[in-house]
Amino acid sequence: MEDQISFMKQFREISHEYREKLSEAKTPADVGDIFITFIHKMLVNVGIEVSNKAIEYIVFDPESEEIVKFEKPLYEKLTEIFKKSDLENIIQKMALTAKHRHMQITHDTDRTDMYRRHD
């Protein structure tokens, strides 16, 4: 059995700032932007060569069962690294955190709209 490569050290380097930025997010769109920015940052930190254009291939869908998706060509670049490391699990953990913040903002907005008085 092959040893798994661990990227927890790189995750810990960005996790505090990631959670802080998510907590400052005001809209669901902000959450998506922050998530994608930090996924890109994580990929760069672990040494994967990705351009700034690669963010176009990261899809955050908090309403879906598959919260994060990578489209070609980025997906093809990540497939092998996912097989031999914990990177996919780390990204899923980041996606869940973003999904919870997204739901929190959406829920708060729904409550605000529900109690708003219109004259």
UniProtKB/TrEMBL annotation:
Top-rank taxon: Bacteria
Protein name according to UniProt: Uncharacterized protein
Source organism phylogeny: Bacteria, Thermotogati, Thermotogota, Thermotogae, Kosmotogales
